[in-house]
């Protein structure tokens, strides 16, 4: 598959072009809708607090964090961290991203199955990310198939983590849309714009999963061909 020039070019495209395109799409969409205020004119921190309170998550706090698009939910400390632009912003983008991160807090509170599964994969996924290429390269240079196979096994945990991340992120976005609408933070005519922000952000996870899967397939094929 990847031995041919065409297949190799497809692989390079997946590895380089797709993630760059996804990042570009996110930045472009975020920039556009960070200039569009919501009808409620609530800041991202206010949006997050309202949705958390509406769902009885009074124990989850909200913090401002440095960086651009560095927003995330910390399940260990029960904290929704919002980048400064989104923490203080009144925009469609700020509301969408803040609600998305709160979506993860709701998942955590409800013990959402895919989120729990992803958390359980973290140790092996981290180990796989750090060790897989070392083992594979060592196996190639030393001509030891067992090392290559071990590297592939480690890599598979990292890839599985990326794949499990997809339903977690899409579910958080769906929850965000539902909460934004039901709470009156956005109106019906603002739903389409909000979805564009959430969909653009989701592209980065899809791109990461595609790249990880392509990399795993390439090494599996390399192992199979070398073992023949």
TrEMBL record:
Alphabetical UniProt keywords: Hydrolase, Membrane, Protease, Transmembrane, Transmembrane helix
Pfam families for this protein: Zn_peptidase_2
Membrane-spanning ranges: 6-22, 121-141, 147-168, 197-225
GO MF annotations, alphabetized: peptidase activity
GO BP term (any one): proteolysis
Name of this chain's protein: Zn-dependent protease
Species annotation: Aquibacillus halophilus
